[in-house]
Amino acid sequence: MSLLARLVRWSGPEQSSTTPANDAPPAPVAAAPDAAEPRGPEPATADPMLADLVRHWQGLSATHRKVIHAVCSEIGATSQLVETKVVDLSRKFQELAANTLAQSVKLNEVIETTARVKCNDREIATAEVMQIIDSRLGALIAQIIQNSKYSVQVVCSLDDVVGNLGQVDQLIADVERINKQTNLLALNARIEAARAGDAGRGFGVVAHEVQELSKSMNAIATRMRGGVGQIVSGVRASHAAVRESANVDMTDFIVAREEIVLLMQAILGQYRSLTDTVSGAMTLSREASGLISRSVVDMQFQDRATQRLQNVVDALSTLQAALESMQGKSATTSGLPDGEPDEAWLRGLIAQRSLGEMRERFISAMLFDDKPASEASAVQESGDVELF
Amino acid sequence: MRQTTIQLGEEVEVRFVGALTMNDQAAFRTMLADVSQRKPRHCAFDLRELESIDSAGIGMLLIAFSVAKNSNYSFSVDHPTGHVRRVLELADLSKIITIRM
Questions:
Q1: Do A99 and A340 meet the contact criterion of CB atoms below 8 Å apart?
Q2: ipTM rounded to 2 decimals
Q3: B51 in contact with A, Cβ within 8 Å
């Protein structure tokens, strides 16, 4: 009988009457020796090679149990770490989603604020401001050209008045000329009356009165000339002032309308561009908020991951229990003492881990029966156990 | 400013050359009186050769329009170009006077 066949026959699996949880493979159960059963295989101790094989098996079992225990602990700790971090990450993502949503609300406020202008307790749409300014400018320009028309009309009228006053001046000159002739005629009449003696005395009185009237008329004409002269001076001064005023070219104000309209169009264009940009940013913020919210939902994968890892741990625990059972059965059947873990092999396994903290946990779990790292360090310092 | 008045049947056309400003007020007034005496059915101011116009010039166009209205003949401003056209457009003169481009 080959060594392998003998080992199989000696430690063959037994049928379990119970089904382990989590659909794990049934763990071999160590059965006590039954006196009623036929005689089993001869003790392993009788065969040195078999005994050596059993000792190796027991050592390997003990080693594997240590490894499984450490791996289960590590999976549990990792699962806990991931869960904690995912919960923390979810919370931060929710805060981010809320902030992004708040940002979109603020952006909306920016659009609403810039869409209207408050003026004299009246709110005006920004786009309407340009229409109002253009309308006011149009009214102002209409007034300017109407004033220009009136100025030209006033200048024309004053031209007429000055011309008419010239005619009045000419009429006064005519009156003065007639007065001189009248005065001369009255003087001649008085001379002729004096020559006529008593017969001409009455005529002389009349001629004298005519002469006096002529003098009065001359005085009036002189005063009229003075008055008309003052009027002419005043009208000419007014004419000059109005003409000077009408000469002021207002077309610069008219042309300025074009510049103001262009500026307003530029401002309006910039406002629309700003609104478009802010609207775009607002849309992006809302999309980002929705995306983050969906990401938070997606991060609930952690529940399933935790369940899967728990199932893995359960399976490994079942395997560990099976190994322990098999090891006990081997010890009972062979009469050999329980095997010890292969410490050198464990050290090699631990040394291959790249993470220092993981090595520390493996040391604690595999070499110091889960004692805290501080005690493990104390043991290390005392020189009882040589580490790495 | 130089101006030429042409009678075309029942229509009178006045062509302007140079600049129309306040200094042309007297000549403009005389021209208007001449046009009114012709008793046209329509009077057109041809501005294609008018290079510039000031606010007083626009005022004179409004006076010409008023005179035409009071004298029962139609009035139009034809073919303004360059600076003159720009000023007339910005002044919204087409709201009052017929402007033929």
A1: no
A2: 0.89
A3: no
